[in-house]
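Quick illustration, no need to memorize.
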Amino acid sequence: MPLEFPWSRRIFSARERENMTKRSLIIVESPSKARTIERYLGKEYSVEASNGHIKDLPAKKFGVDVTDNFKAEYVVMPGKAKIIKKLKERAAKVENIYLATDPDREGEAIAWHIATEVSGSGKNTRRVLFNEITPEGLKEGMANPRDVNMNLVNAQITRRIIDRIVGYTVSPFLGSVLYRGLSAGRVQSVALRLVCERHEEIINFKPREYWTLDAELTSERQEMFTARLHRIAEKKPEIASEADVKKIIEVVRDEEFVVSNVEKKDVRKSPPPPFTTSTLQQDAASRLRLTPRRSMGIAQRLYEGVDIGGGEPTGLITYMRTDSTRVSDSAVKSARNFLSSKYGGEFIPSKPNVFRQKKKQVQDAHEAIRPTDPTLIPDSLKEKIDDAELKLYRLIWQRFMASQMTPCILAQTTIDIEAGDEHLFRIAGSVEKFAGFRKVYPPVREREELFIPKEIAKGEKVTAEDFLPEQHFTEPPAYYSQSSLIKELDAQGIGRPSTFSDIIAKLYDRKYVETGSRKLVPSDTGLLVNQILVENLPNIFDVKFTARMEEELDEIETGAEDYLTVLNDFYKPFRASMDSADEKKSEIKAQFLEETDEKCEKCDSPMVIRFNRSGEKFMGCSGFPKCKNAKPLPGSKEVVDEPTGKNCPDCNSLLVIKRGRYGRYVGCSNYPDCRHTESLGTDIACPKTGCEGEIVERTSRKGKLFFGCSRYPDCDQVSWNRPVLYTCECGLHFVEERSNKTRGTYYSCPECKNSYDSLETADEA
């Protein structure tokens, strides 16, 4: 029977169908992607999922022989033996095997591992790339098979080995000088350094007083407006005190105010390029209040396919891990036709917009993030996909359509008014003259525009009705938000956009930044860890060093650099730095052991202040480990409440995290006058479709901790296991922490049941 497709019998020609034998196996990463592809290709193809990586470095040992050309020991990951067995069984029954894992470094490495397992003698095993899960995307991918690209594989392996060396070497070092359970990562720790350095800037900032002076003016036509002092004797005014501003007022009060210049011009604002991974995460954070990890999880589902009616999945966007702003000609044509018919020809340029890549190294294997069908408007998907998916799809659709529209035109007016010979006041403002791309992609916040007199002319005299001096103080830089940190990481070339979400999530997971706020404020633990790393391993966790490492990984990918050379160049100075730090370990440790006046009642040694695994201080014997005496700090029964950054809805006092009989909860700092309480949130969105709640800590009637939706009883989502922010290979945005006697602590996905011995197997350690 010839190969046929449910959407059209003419998608492929007879010759194409003949070349694509039905005795073929397609292997992808995600089960949901497998279902979508199987829907399109039909029963003639067998489509199976690997559920992400099938092999990795061992979780409980180093797994890299640095003396033998960095030979890596890759082992079958927990829970993947059954999957490999199934893939082998399916592969044995077919003639052709197509490895269709994700089109990036990680996907290439997965394809390579799968190939080593399932490609038997005489099997035709090829690599195919699907930039979008649509009939057209599948056709293009299947028409261009290739071999596994070992440059891409070597780049991924190099990254993984370096991350393993850093994580397995530096993390124990941190534990030995501070306390066990701390972790370090090649990129994670540099991101922490940026957060801590910004914190230092803020706390060391010394505000400087300055004043501005506005004049309330009236034109000859009785139009009232306000202008600000702009120049004094051709220089920018620097008014340091109230006395200084009063002197200026005394001078200008008696001067004649005359309009010296009226300038009107049109300002064109060009449309933004379509989304890359980095810009999508930034905009999703600022416009939709989505964490990077959550936005990437939603984007993964939109790419792999969601049910938009009829019970069958449909891929709505192109691949969401990309640095490129390139867009296919067919997508551009479709967008331009749609925009022309809906808004008119004045909203599309004469030629399609093409955007230059700003970065040196760009992953350009696939397009920018865009809708697979530009004519599929977001409103048509209402009540067909959940709210979060709809919001992100709308954002992607708007951004892409805007990228192919004409510039926005603003009519800008600037009016200069001279007061005597030395003082110049100015008012400037703009109004939208032509919406252009803003028709579909409006700005996040519209600026409040000043009133600009419309009929004022050069040489006209105006009347100064009053003067409005205002005191100001210079402000420190703002703490990083998730959006601004991603922007900074991207600008500095630190890490890959595809790992940004995991990097930020790890800062929260390790409790290196404070929870309960959208600002990235370093915790005491984060500050201590950063101090140790920067003081003792400054070259390893340097911004420029880390950025250069990313460039070298890109060069391995293109074949311009040998991976063994990169590994050797990294390891030799790294080992030297670690040896130097190890020699000073006792000094470093003593630096953080604050001696007290108390003596140990068991051995009479001095008691010192230590840290437990949660980063909390306690008093322990300096003779540890011989003497294990420990006790709370004096007065520690009065636990300091942690601020949440939110205010009480009842009395507007600060909400804090308290500790009660049954664990932690959120309560009002104004207790007992205000008894408002809330469950403690986890910053993890409820996984139930259509639910906008979040997972919070709760306690049962017997005092046992469990985790349920904040919208209970409207939502019955509940689990005894603590959720942890981590995007599972199936796309779910969290996993659950579990434990048993055999495995100890491990992590399991409640949806696909995939499990992890450690989350260090993530893209970025």
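The first helix runs from residue 14 to 19.
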